[in-house]
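Q: A reviewer asked whether we had any structural model of the full assembly, not just the individual parts. We don't, so I'm hoping you can provide one. Inputs are below.
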Amino acid sequence: MAFNSMDDIVSEIAAGKFNRADWNKITGAAAYTAGRWYDFGALNGYPVANAFAGTSLAWRSCDEATGNGTQAFGIPNGGSVSTDIKHVMNVAAVTGIATGVPGVLMLVDVQGYYPGISMNVNTSQTLTGTPTLRYTDGVGVRAYLVINTTSGATAHTLSMSYTNQAGTSGRTLPVTVSCTASAITPHITHSGVASNNYGPFLPMASGDTGIQSVQSVQLSAASGAGTASLVLARPLLSLPITTLGVMSERDLLNQLPSLPRVYDGACLTWLYFAGANTAANTSFFGSTEFAWG
Amino acid sequence: MAFRNIAQIGRAIEEEGSFQYSYFFKPNIPQPGSVLRIIDASVASGVPKYNGYVGAQLTSTQLFGEGNAGVYCGSVPEGKERHLLTWSVGTTTATAPMALMLCDYLMFYPLIDLEDTDPQVMTNSVGLPRYTDGEGVRMALVCSVPATVASTGTVEYVNQDGNVSTVSFSTLTGNPGMVLSAASTATQSNYFMPLASGDSGVRRVNSFQMSSAAGGFATIVLVKPIATLPIYETSTISEATLINDKLIFPKIYDGAYLNFFTYNTFDGASTLRGEMVFVTR
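A: Here is a predicted structure for the entire assembly that you could use as a starting point for your response.
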């Protein structure tokens, strides 16, 4: 049962079908580079950091209650509410560090990931396991490769074979995608301002609207070091943070997207676009509010 | 009886008179001593009155709002519910931008010795007076005597499921009224102490231990965040009708002790004025 009117929203919230979560994250010991995307789920704070636990190259599902099964890194959003339908109502974020703005935060529902991808081999790495997605057909589910340990200095590109939203396998990236040499944690390594950088998500083949699973990844060259995880996530909304010390807010009824749905078990985290060279140890705070009916 | 629609909210105000208008004024929120600090406004004088966190050392002490203790939100007749409808606030001091977090202050443990590196065991003679399952309840470490050295420590608490958790935390140096919780090793405040993986709230605190002496005393305050309102610029009122502007309609429990934390991007003493409207049905 979805909200069908403002009156319905009032009624459901007044009945207690509401959850607020206050979160905070702090960037790591290295500065971030303008124009790149970073996975805030891997940062310390509340919720705890995602350390990408799991068996190398094997699918690891993520959910609200347990995160990856070892680190519950998702923002709490009120638990399972079925048969009601849950929505994001309101998000807010602020930073007090000048280099933390301007930036963009993107809230994503992390479906899971393939950990332990070596950034130091140029052979095909077969990914195993059958993802069980909350978006069962994969529509809207996108992929990004996030660095877990610093990659090497040798230039390299990324190729990928995946199954799209229609269940068609063997789909590949439509363009050359370059990863960043010596990329730090938790940089989404293919994002940035260099030639052939794309972010925050990997481009998909013509006509594809989502990803059900990924079968393999391959680098054009061994970078020299490092590991990464390939994450499948569904973007829900974006929140620009524009001004130092000024809390950015977004009301998800009157702005767009409107009332993004949050599925039971959603493992929510933020991706961050650095509009400036963000200093090390920069704190971000915020709140996310959910209601269901 | 819960509100069912917008019309009932309007009727509560226009026809039934079931609303409470409350004014608050804090003439001198303590100066943080540094930028990017969070201040507990409840320790400032004004309306509502000063909160001295008076209680037996390390003993759980409940907070109840009444009269000038906490933002006055009126009494709730039996069988009725109260919600926060509107909130506005402004500052006349050059301390904007800033962000205010309205919280229901539930319970506190006073006189925690930050110089003591032995475990300090809490006496939980009473529990949470509201939000008794602890869901969404967070710990704030508020300075009561100046902390002169940044440090770290661990706190053991009972989470929202009734299980015991232990988590490490960092502290900043600070003056009375300042929130000492640090964001990891950085020199920036964090509203709340961290929670262990998978936890989403706190029912009570069992013990507290500093890893090295920090000087001073502090209070752990258990609070339930209610709403956040940014102040964009000095002398410009920020306001929100929460159901329209933020799509929230926070329920305010009987006995709620409402007060604020302020996130300061400038180092200066702040003056805050504002109002709230509560509706009841």
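A: Points you may want to mention in the reply: The first strand of chain A starts at residue 18 and ends at 26. The radius of gyration of chain A is 19 Å.
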